[in-house]
Amino acid sequence: MIEEARITFYEIERCGYYRYNHDEPEFGSVLDVMSQLHDWVKQDDCVLGETCTYKVEEGESVYHTYCFDLVKGNPTNDFLLTTWNEVPSVNGQIAAVNATEHVGAATVNLSEIAEGHIPGYATYFWIIPERKIFATICFHNALNGHQNFKKYMKEYIAKFTSYVVAEEDEDQTNIIGYAQNPGEQAQNYLPSFNSRLFRLPSKLEYLRNNHQFIKKIIRKNKLNPDVQENLSFWEWMLRNIGIADPEPLENEIRIRYEFNRTPSIEELNTIIHQYYEDHDSKWDDVGFHLEGEDAPIWLSHSVAKNKFDLDIEKDNAEIINANSLLAAICQNRQNILNLVNN
User: Fold this and answer.
1) Does 146 lie in the same domain as 245?
2) Residue ranges of the chain with pLDDT lower than 50?
3) Domain that holds residue 337
4) Per its UniProt entry, which superkingdom is the organism in (predicted)?
5) What's phi and psi for 198, nearest 5 deg?
6) pTM of the entire structure?
7) What is the residue-wise DSSP string for 200-216?
8) Cβ within 8 Å of residue 278, ≥6 positions away
């Protein structure tokens, strides 16, 4: 079946084991780490519930991420990773609210979660080790799972590869360092994984070279009721327009605001940096209106992303078959990679 896929590319900035204040890893390439992860999750005795690489501490906003599937393509050595991202539940039940009822009087229904099951949603990643890049692939779900993926990979590198040197202490395992080869003395390397949106330099350079002509900055964003800063901004914004007793922010809402400003080159670089560090929402955007131009220039247009029709197979309503998805990508590989070849 043909499905429209939203593909967004990211650069892998760090992957492996580093000496402090060094930018290149001593060992642990993207291909090496992904190959070890593949072997780890494909062990005969490995079950999905044991594939999360980190613990969730009380009060953290992140939930568990599991490996649903991981397949490797030949001869490209590309990988297709499907992650399962846990969503919150209430005493073994999923809560849903009736959106057609009035605020303050809406009913909430609770659905039982079958024993041993993890409520969540799937996200998909196409990893290309030779290029040190990967792409998120979204279909009907707006969430791409990028932040969960970064945490998952960083914790895997820190705890589970063949380079980890550990000691057993009663009922727990203590990691004492990392060594490239078995039997070598453990060293205090820094395990690391980090990624950022793939930037299209030509569009950013145009902005930098013409920053003195910027007359207006525009911001589009989503306010999330789960983020305290968003709640404070929402209340401030309503009070600022004369609403003395603002209603609480209960659902995600889109906002757009603009102001006249010609940023310095330092300010422009800060805006660009923060956008790339924090951006994961398709509606989160910053635009610049330049003197003499009809339309603003949006930072989202400097990101390597586009929509593609892929011929895929589904295992069920939620899960796309990993082998099918990787095959569909490989059939369109060069066309898709043109996003990052320009």
Assistant:
1) no
2) none
3) 2-83+121-198+304-341
4) Bacteria
5) -75, 120
6) 0.79
7) -HHHHHHHHHTGGGEEE
8) 284
